[in-house]
Specification:
Blueprint lengths: L7 E5 L10 H9 L2 E6 L6 H9 L6 E6 L6 H20 L4 E5 L10 H9 L4 E4 L4 H9 L10 E5 L5 H4 L5 E5 L5 H10 L6 E5 L7 E3 L13 E5 L7
Parallel strand pairs: 1-4, 1-5, 2-3, 2-4, 6-7
Antiparallel strand pairs: 7-10, 8-9, 8-10
Helix pairs in contact: 3-4
Length: 236
């Protein structure tokens, strides 16, 4: 008798507040016997912690996956393949696996590194969207990120030339600035942009900080810092 193949689900659990986990996300986490999540080198499993506040995971197999953050692409790729193999072991047994992912599954999400090798191995993959950190941050700030004729640009602040990106029209969301947040602030100050820059750190998490104008606050250097730069005419 052929064993039923498991399905791999990537589930966005939002930026921190468990009330922002979608109803679909909760259903998938509840129905899958295995719940996976990324684990940091220090042992943190933030996405899993958020999921555990939204649904009961006490009877689940918890699969903790390690992803290398080193610059060597070969080392990173090996960690992705190892994590994918761990998931595939469960799928081969016919178990569905839900991977809890911070924020949304399509924005700088670790689950993206697993989807292709799992599909190549012959298993179905499904993505369930979640609330992005910048959407939650904008809600905290009570502001819109776009207007009818103005775009929104998402920028990995620690990995590209900021000066050119800041010339783009509309709102700029700066993410992934950890270790370079002070440098980012200096660039914004030099360009006279601090006054229309807001910062939200640890949105929905313990230690949340909301600065509506960055010229009135300190540098908040965290992996979970979102910097929102508006156009000058947006000031009120």
């Amino acid at each position: 008798m052929e064993v039923k193949k498991g399905v791999f689900y990537g589930v966005g659990v939002g930026p921190g507040d468990p009330e922002l986990v979608t109803r679909q996300g909760c259903r998938l986490l509840e129905q899958c016997p295995v719940v996976a999540a990324a684990q940091t080198a220090s042992g943190q499993t933030l996405a899993l912690d958020i999921a555990a506040q939204a649904v009961d995971l006490s009877r689940k197999e918890l699969l903790l996956l390690s992803f290398s953050m080193v610059r060597d692409p070969a080392v990173r790729e090996r960690s992705y393949q190892t994590a994918a193999a761990q998931v595939i072991q469960r799928l081969e047994r016919g178990q569905d696996v839900a991977m809890a992912v911070l924020g949304d599954v399509s924005i700088y999400a670790t689950v993206s590194y697993l989807m292709e090798p799992i599909r190549r191995a012959g298993f179905e993959t499904v993505l369930s969207p979640g609330v992005t950190s910048f959407s939650a941050a904008a809600a905290k700030l009570r502001r819109s990120l776009t207007a009818m004729d103005k775009p929104l640009t998402i920028i990995p602040a620690g990995g590209m030339e900021l000066e050119q990106a800041l010339e783009l029209p509309g709102t700029k969301v700066l993410m992934k600035s950890i270790g370079k947040t002070g440098q980012v602030r200096r660039v914004l100050e030099e360009r006279g942009l601090l006054e229309q820059t807001a910062v939200v750190a640890n949105c929905g998490l313990p230690g949340e900080r909301v600065l509506e104008r960055w010229d009135e606050g300190e540098v908040l250097d965290s992996y979970f810092t979102t910097i929102i730069v508006g156009e000058k005419e947006e000031l009120t």
